[in-house]
Amino acid sequence: MPRWRPEDVNAAADVIAGRLAALGIPVDVHQPEICLSVPLSASVRAGGKSYRAKPPSSSLPVPQGRSAKLVKLQANPKALRSYNRDIATLFGGSIRSLEEVRALVAGNIVVMSGFGNPALTSLIEEWGGVGLIAVNPGVDIHWGTCTTIWGSPDLADLPRKPKIPVVAVNNPDGQELMALAEQGGEATIFTEMLEGWFPQKIPVVTIPGSVEPEKFALVHGHYDSWDVGVGDNATGDATLLELARVLWNGRADLRRSVKIAWWPGHSTGRYAGSTWFTDRFALDLDENCVVQINCDSPGCRWATSYHDTRAFTESAKIATQAILDVVPDAEVKTLRPPQAGDYSFNNIGLPSFFMLSSTMPEHLRKEKGYYDVSGCGANIAWHTENDTIEIADRDILLTDIRIYLLSVLRVANAEVLPFDWLATCDEFLATIAQYADASKGMADLSAARAETEALRAAVEKLAQAAPAARNAAILRLARILVPVNATREARFRHDPAYTVPPLPTLAIAAELPQLPEALRRSGGVELMRGQNRYVAAVRAARQLVEEAVA
């Protein structure tokens, strides 16, 4: 079980604040109450045997046990850590219909390969399952979280708190449990959790700029970890401390300010620390924050590739160029950030890049026989007791620190903010074309396409505007285009922790051919409303660009 308590997290924050004080760097330490779910113990009893297990945070506590028949679901190996709620993605065709899976799952405990993540947990609960046993891929059991609630819940979020117990077991034990399920066996799940609202410390450093001090870049990462947590995320905390030291000493040369923040509640609160900060300082972030840069799992052993670098399209060039300028022969590929990490700022609309940092080259990961994990530079010590000091690599960490520092400086010191909204318009047009093609003629997305083309034409002229007007327009474009591309909820709320497709209000277009005939008219209504929202947002974006150029 984890060797820490909520008060131990505050002690870690004091260590960070003490290091900053020793460097002569002022630090604000906020101490909000945030909602946490801390795992205490878990086990599974089945076939006359007790199996070791770990409950993800937010699993339903059932200390007296919950018993039911075991049923096995066949997971898609390519979706082991997917946050997707699509049946075809999760099960790779082994489940043919919603009715089939509900008939199989209802009233039973499901055992299946993968991780007990929020998307899967919410689906098992919706289908009437009474428990979930996630069979991890290796001999170790990984910690995690299973709630779709992002951050501390408000009243509207509370109904989504998991109502079933969830546990993870290792692969050898899981194979036994799946074999037992095939024989019609039963199981009992036991879980104990510590849940409630706890005061947790959030250290924040503000390094003032000298030209536009009110505008700032936000660099951040979590400092709470499972067990020792060296690669996830002590290396990230060290990176943030070094950034604070270097930037503080060179603050006279900063154009804009830089804020550096360390979050608690990353897993046990489903990003409750960063979400509190987003909520508490929402209006300042909306008005003044020019970018958010996430720092998680840098500097891990063997992590010399950058083929899994996360960035929204408008920020991809910044991230890519910073990596190549530090590591000229690096393999760099930028991908859309998933609904994970401490990306708690999408609904405000911040340009964003980085999440996990360098990672192991794919050929090396496969040579080692490592399965896919979500941190530690692809080391499978991620979220286990094995994430200890040997997971860190001093030279790789120094490289990653240089990449972070260079990318922060390029945003903080640019005369004109370096975000490429033409690339984002091109992405939107490609997404619209993809959805229209997938709809097989059932969706008319011409209004969305025409308005996006008009926005692109306007953005092409933005270079004609004075730098101050360009910066204001670039910032306001982010407030409109990031939410329309990455969120379903209204601004200043937080989407559930499962996959959001590109341009989510238009995504139903691609699903129309697969909908039952009885639901297609309702699907058309959803698309009409979604396209209205999209067109209105893009039109507003075009108008603000035209005003800046006028």
Automatic annotation (TrEMBL):
> From the Swiss-Prot or TrEMBL record, what is one GO molecular function term?
carboxypeptidase activity
Pfam families, per this entry? Peptidase_M28
SUPFAM superfamilies, per database record: Zn-dependent exopeptidases
- Superkingdom field: Bacteria
Q: Where is the Peptidase M28 domain?
A: 204-395
**Transmembrane segment boundaries:** none
Fetch the Gene3D superfamilies from UniProt: 3.50.30.30, Zn peptidases
List, alphabetically, the PANTHER family matched: N-ACETYLATED-ALPHA-LINKED ACIDIC DIPEPTIDASE (PTHR10404), VACUOLAR PROTEIN SORTING-ASSOCIATED PROTEIN 70 (PTHR10404:SF46)
Protein name stated in the entry: M28 family peptidase
